[in-house]
Amino acid sequence: MENPFERPPANVSAALINGPIPPYPGRLLPVTAETHTAERQLMAGYGRLIRSCDLPQQRKLKEDLAVELNTASDATKVNSILQQTLDLLSQNKKVIVTGDDLPVASRILKEPDGLPKETPGFLSALRQALAGQGVECSFIQAFPNHSEAIPGLAAERAAMASRNFKEMERFVDGGFRKNESAQRPEVRDRDNQPVYAPSQTKVILLPYRQAAGWLELNRRFLQPPEISMILTPTASADQFIQAIGRGSRRNSKGPTAVQLVANDSCADRHRLGQLLQGLQFIAATGSPAVAPFLELVADCLDRASARRAALDQRLIQLQKNQQIRSARKFDAGQSRRSPSASGVRP
Q1: What is the pLDDT, as a whole number, of residue 325?
Q2: 204-246 pLDDT, tens per residue?
Q3: Which residues pair with residue 188 across a beta bridge?
Q4: Domain membership of residue 183 as a residue range
Q5: pLDDT at res. 326
Q6: Would you say 42 and 69 are in contact if contact means Cβ atoms under 8 Å apart?
Q7: Fewest Cβ atoms closer than 10 Å to its Cβ: which of 4, 54, 256, 279?
Q8: Total domain count for the chain?
Q9: Which SS3 state, helix, strand or coil, does residue 329 take?
Q10: What gap in Å lies between CA 295 and CA 194, rounded to an integer?
Q11: What average pLDDT does range 169-181 have in this prediction?
Q12: CATH number, domain at 58?
């Protein structure tokens, strides 16, 4: 997983351009026993693979395990975040959902037909669920990792960037146009004031890797509805702050509500722990705007760890009870055996 001590934003106040956003309490979702079982199977299966290969392959397998665990954990949040998004839309609010979108074909888990179990990326799955409810959303695609260093992918990156700008244009309020220099200035009236135009979509799905930038969100109007942000855990404090900044730079009236949605899976507890360390590092550099989010992440991690500890304790107690019942059945069976059946002469 990513190093929590990567480069922090050069200036947190620049990311939170309109001041800090008071976050709502984090939401801790339940995880089913089947999900916990699948998580253990993944870790055990990858452990066997890692022990049987050389160091470079081990590094790649650890990265793949992290992706599988994160995607599996985020998949359990889709239905809850779908309902939360629908509720916010019914309150005439716009919604920014930020997370990862990493589909996987499992190395370990199999379908009944023996093929690898496939899990769509979180944002793609949420997009499909929203479409099933008749909700159209803007969808920002993340560039492939390290693609900027591959000249052969330049055309693909340019096409993806063009699509992303169009998707953002559909979400933001106000008018923009592209000039001869490929810049995108605002449309202004005779008094040189930005022209208001309502957005075409009320929901945008934003991957963490594409969270930085988006100056289109800087302009504020009085007419648009308020914005709510929903974030899933990430190990990168830099990406987290940049994502929060998209809500701070919103172009809508009123405060922005920020909510972190997590669960007690191993993947989320690891990401929350990495994120907490990264935010502590940023806070130590003298960035007071990080403080409320530091408290938010610490609270989520504490509650997730406490819930998992309670679950593990219940499982241990269940195993002990099962062992006691098995021992009692064995003793009862032994006592019912006749002397002749035991091979002992009277």
Answers
A1: 67
A2: 999 999 988 787 776 667 667 788 899 999 999 999 988 888 7
A3: 194
A4: 20-145+152-233+242-261
A5: 67
A6: yes
A7: 54
A8: 1
A9: helix
A10: 37
A11: 75
A12: 3.40.50
Residue located via tokens 């605002």: 186
In a domain, 122, yes or no: yes
Residue 14 resides in a domain: no
Whether 229 and 200 have beta carbons less than 8 Å apart is answered as no
Secondary structure (DSSP) of 100-137: ----EEEEEEE-TTSSEEEE--HHHHHHHHHHHTT---
What's at 193, amino acid-wise? Q
Q: Which one-letter DSSP state was computed for residue 23?
A: B
Residue whose entry in the numeric block shows the structure tokens 């998209």? 246
Q: DSSP class of residue 140? A: P
Residue with token string 């995607």: 71
Q: Is residue 54 part of a domain?
A: yes
**DSSP sequence for 205-253:** EEEGGG-S--GGG----SSSPPEEEEE---S-HHHHHHHHHHHHT-SSS
Contact 248, 221 (CB under 8 A): no
CA–CA separation, 255 and 248 (whole Å) = 9
pLDDT in tens, 241-297: 888 887 665 555 566 788 999 999 999 999 999 999 999 998 888 777 788 889 999
Establish if 325 belongs to a structural domain. no
Q: What is the pLDDT of residue 223?
A: 65
